[in-house]
Amino acid sequence: MEKIYVTPLSGRYASKEMDEIWSADAKYSTWRKLWVALAETEKELGINITDEQIEEMKAHINDIDYDVVAKREKECRHDVMAHVYEFGTKCPNAKGIIHLGATSCFVTDNTDVILMNKALEIIKEKLVLVISNLRKFALENKDVTCLGYTHFQPAQLTTVGKRATLWIQDLLEDLEELEFVQSHMKLLGCKGTTGTQESFMKLFKDEEKVKQIDGKIAEKMGFNKVFAVSGQTYTRKLDTRVLNVLSSIAQSASKFANDMRLLQHEKELEEPFEKGQIGSSAMAYKRNPMRSERINSLSRHVMVLSQDPAITAATQWLERTLDDSANKRICVPEAFLAIDGVLVLYANISSEIVVYKNVIRTNLMQELPFMGTEEILMNAVLKGGDRQELHEKIRVYSMEAAREVKEYGRPNDLVDRIANDKSFGLTKEEILKALNPDNLCGRAVHQVEDFIKEEVNPVITKYKDLIKDIDIEVNV
User: Fold this and answer.
1) What gap in Å lies between CA 392 and CA 407, rounded to an integer?
2) Predicted structure pTM score
């Protein structure tokens, strides 16, 4: 039977590896690993727990009967206690010590941190892959001169590669933020119903032993940091911080996708288009930027989802309130699944961006006389012309030439207008020489080279082990 997904993000958009992190099996098996870590810690600190009980628990970490859990939860209206009950049926000898001294948030909160950390690793891997793809693209196109755009109006020239460095720079900022957040991920530990560890004080009657619990559990779960203080839950600011990183990546990806859509309209760049791909169900000739549009769509969802934990963090009551639970269960996994889908698309597009150099050149040459007016002005002044007077004349001539192009569809005759005005002192040949487009994009080529060398290559070197062949196929 075909697998049925609850959300379109699973199966259609997100990768299998991200889907598995937020699966029921990953979540509830992590609960059981935490119960094992708790039992091991309690045994090490003197509680009468046997090796046999712990081994029994370990043997059934992945053996979950969801039907039994569902039936029990319907009776007790408590998901954690339903799982404690079901785990106990599999581990009759350990039944009495499962969850000893803990509260529900011991498993729910610590699991959320563990899963978020694993998910961030996947996001980091895909982020580095996209940066690597764009690095290659930028270098290959560093000297492909093109129109720059401000307000989506033709502006001073740049290069295709230089434009790509702007996309990379945004992603480097995102990667730096992700690294910071991940390096500060902390477990809740095991602090009890109001964060005072009162239950463990009663259990051990030894504060020095109680002080060791958090560190020992964290170490067993692969963490070296625990929140120093908490209520029943870890501060919900952590969820806000994590989803803000995902939102930041979504913003960068969406900016790239918008640029691709605009440039595909200009027929200068194009996202990959498979041989059998259908661009439109009605208009067979169309090659719509569907993947870029999907990046925009999914990114919008991530950016909106990032508001959920911010509101949750702001509205928590005292040591614990449960209005975070349902919201948290939805927004955190969905944000990760969605941004994973975004990066799958981004990796796919960035690996095979099509560059139409002839169209780029044609568009550039149509606007070139306008783009070179500053160069013309400087040359005319060097021949003795009055800058203010000539600037005004160029402004007037530019407006007139633009009107000819826009209203009558005639060729751009700005060069002829300037050449025919003796006050400029320039021949048409001198003007055309000054309008060599490859000499009108400033430091763009060297900016690409310097940026790649100084900013991008160190990141690629640092994460070279993450750059590997991963599945970047997407559903069209």
Assistant:
1) 22
2) 0.90
